Amino acid sequence: MRQLTALEMHGREAMGLPPHEISDFIKTRKRLAEYGKTIVDAGDFLIHHLEQVRRCKTTVSQLAAEVIAAKQKAGRSALYLIDLRKRLRRFCEDFGNQPIASVTVEQVDYWLGNLPLSPKSRTNFRANIHVLFSYATKRRMLDFNPVEHTTKPTLIDKPPEIFTVDELRALLQAANRVEPDTIPMLTIGAFAGLRDAEIKRADWSEVDLARGHIEIKAPKAKSARRRIIPIQPNLAAWLRPYSGKMGRVVPDGYRGKLERVRKAAGLTDWPNNGLRHSFASYRLAAIHDAPRVAAELGHTSPTMLYNTYREVVMPEDTVRYWAIAPAREAENLLAFSAEANK
Prior knowledge:
The chain is mostly helical. The chain has helices at residues 2-15, 19-33, 39-55, 60-73, 78-95, 105-113, 119-138, 165-178, 183-192, 196-201, 233-239, 254-265, 274-287, 290-297, 303-309, 315-321, 327-340; strands at 207-208, 213-216, 227-230. Helix content is 60%, strand content 3%. A three-stranded antiparallel β-sheet has the order 1-2-3. α8 (165-178) packs antiparallel against α9, α9 runs antiparallel to α11 (233-239) and α9 (183-192) crosses α13 (274-287).
């Protein structure tokens, strides 16, 4: 009886609906039926979403500030925080005032897909935005991370750009002639594999020629982990004249100096991240120990080494690379490198 009463009441309400609402109802029911869903399912889903938005008034900008503070408290490196802050700031320019719970998969997917950047840069943005929404999910502001349902940019597998042996030798010879104070930063990049930012932060107190290693202190490392990198014989030969120096390894006005060195060496361009890529490729070819090379590069596993830094080089070029040294020592190092790689 109660059910019949409800049906009669609903029927009267339906009779009072304007024609356009009845039309919308029928169209919507048909569209939902294609997915095996009903009007009730759609209503429940929307109400749940609106309730979630009502419960969580935290905006994207507010949450971004919380995330950065949490990562800073957790001891993440300065480089990581700079990158995270930069990318979240860009996201907040478009979504900052919007409640985090109201941001949809479609909005994030459209935003990422329309960034006027390379696939690699969009991948980096996607990773950082994922951090933001992952934090919201752990705080139970969201049921799921919308970034996980967005389209991943397609990355073209291109070999890393490295210096040939002759290019690097010409570069260092030119540096010796026109800007000798750039020799340390160039050789540390080529023969120890430090990141560009790590070289810029490096201090001569961290270059220990006597014990044969370079120390990357945790605050200066991208991963916020301290590491010790051995100084190879040819690198020691290049750095020996600078023994006892104090202060920063990178000289003042280094940008202009490096440009003059490039021109003096006759190089038309500078390989992207070429010094570090070259170290990884020639070092791996020399010792065939991926975990060790990965550790020297500051990675926890060889995966990044294989995916990003490794280029196939010939054995004879490997010998010549690790024999690049000041002229007075090059011949001895060539013999040493050849013997070490047998």
